[in-house]
Amino acid sequence: MDRSTVRPHRMNPSGGCPHADNARLRARGSVVPVVLPGEIEGMAVLGHEALKAFLGHPDVAKGARHFTLLREGAIPEGWPLRTFATVQSMTTADGADHRRLRSLVSRAFTSRRVAELRPRVEELTEALLDELARAATAGGGVADLRRHFALPLPMGVISELLGVDVAHRDRLHALSTQVVTTDIGSQQAVSANREFAAVLGEIVAAKAERPGDDLTTALLAARDDDGDRLSAQELIGTLLLLIVAGHETTLNLITNAVRALCAHPDQLAHVRGQQVGWGDVVEETLRWDAPVSYFPFRYPVRDVTVDGTVVPKGTPILAGYSAAGRDPAAYGPDADRFDVTRPGRPGAVRHLSLGQGAHYCLGAPLARLEAETALRRLFDRFPKLELAVPEGELPRHSGFVGNSVDTLPVRLSSDAP
Ligand code: HEM
């Protein structure tokens, strides 16, 4: 195909199921030009091998100063993707700054520390399953699993780690959704960001009055420690990142796994028959229906060539995780098939859906613990669980960064009305 004649793909701000577009785009090449909201030109990396190479490329950075249009003042304050580029935290930092910001919280998320959280995650899961059962009774047998289970579990865990009061959680979730959606007006984007920072400021001020045994208190101590370990803006940016990344993602993963298993009872039977474990379901869902679809941004610090395509210096690049997860060049001709036996096969290709390299997901062990616990307990407790709406009719979650549906109405038992 002559790529010069192909018009850049216009990213749909309201999102939708990404897989059909992804297949069309991958046919154009593993790196393609895209138009971002506001007519901003960017590119997306879609092929598995190309994405792996790009994420580890020494001439690719995450710092906002490398985003040419932003540096030139051409990106308005209310641009829906602006927070991804400018939030002051490890996700927009490189080199020594990145190591400094990540090391302030990384110890709380190691596999060993996360394993210690298991009893609490189990306890929260049981309480939420009771809540889900109550919601189904109140709803004539149908309950929204996303709202009553997939959301409050990761939100509860990250809030407890950060010491965030229950009273703030609904607002923080609503604000998180607004700052990550690509389908938002500029006024609304500006006010969501301001309110998010204000609520976090209140939480920090309350912690300064009454310190606790939590990460916010630890970050406050780092900020007050002569100021060179963490600035005031970095403290707010780090809290914002941990709250958003700590729940919007796992929420999508649990939701997508339940949808996939309900739509593929033969795959659920493999878990029930113990041919595979819940960990395999989690890994296959991450690959097949990546919770983070397109992650903004990286910028080449000089023109770089990825799989034969030149990616110009300073261009905002999306990491196309949902596209890479179904790349037939990596996963074979049946890459579109949800197959829970795939991750355990000898020589299985590891998905990239939790990232790769220096910015590999900090919360990966926590996400896996939460999702495995949630799925195991949910299907043990409600073995007849089924979707109450056909899978294709579920309303999609808006935006092209996250990938999921907005509600997941389920029937917990086929005996229910
Ligand atoms: C299924 C759940 C999750 C998925 C799919 C996911 C996915 C990702 C991906 C793809 C990245 C790399 C982004 C990039 O630079 O391209 C990332 C980074 C990150 N994730 Fe997760 N994540 C999940 C859960 C969590 C949780 C529970 C936390 C809680 C702390 C978390 C915290 C972070 C942080 C702080 C980063 C930035 C790391 C850095 O820049 O060094 N994530 N995640």
UniProtKB/TrEMBL annotation:
Region (Disordered): 1-22
Chain intervals with Basic residues compositional bias: 1-10
TM regions (residue ranges): none
Alphabetical UniProt keywords: Heme, Iron, Metal-binding, Monooxygenase, Oxidoreductase
UniProt key word Heme: yes
One Pfam family recorded for the sequence: p450
Top-rank taxon: Bacteria
Keyword hit for Iron: yes
Entry GO MF terms: heme binding; iron ion binding; monooxygenase activity; oxidoreductase activity, acting on paired donors, with incorporation or reduction of molecular oxygen
Gene3D superfamilies cross-referenced by the UniProt entry: Cytochrome P450
Family, as annotated: Belongs to the cytochrome P450 family.
Protein name per the record: Cytochrome
Organism: Streptomyces noursei
Organismal lineage: Bacteria, Bacillati, Actinomycetota, Actinomycetes, Kitasatosporales
